[in-house]
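tool_call: predict_structure(chain=1)
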Amino acid sequence: MGVVPVSKQTVYLITIVLCILLQAGIAPAIAIMGCKPNFLLIPVLLISMRSGTAAGSIAGFSLGLLYDLMGSGTIGCMALVLTLIAFIVGVAGESMDNRHSDLRAGRAGQAAGGAARAAGRGGADERGASGRAPRREQARDVPHEVTSQVGR
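tool_result:
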């Protein structure tokens, strides 16, 4: 038996339907001191992390509005909260993706430099037999007034 590939949208839909059922059926029964769990936060976080701020904010607003309509609270409060959470999580997820892509690009550059050195063509930096990069003196741009005052 092989594994059947499933699209992101299918996973999102299944997660949303399952969490709506949990929110409507189980959440009121497991309220602790009047506080009900919010199962609709799960798909909002999933969509925000995987698809970015725009899709996450739309999901947060839609599921927050659905949460408000299922309850007896003020309509729009949970929509606002879930939209803000989705936006913040989406921005964090995008910045982590950018950081990881920079790391991957850096590792790819190191691998290319290592392959070039192995082929005898040099590389990004010439390392000696010890495996360390040679020390290089850094040119310092110091104004003449400062150097003349230091000598006094």
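agent: The two ends are 85 Å apart (CA to CA). Proceeding to next step.
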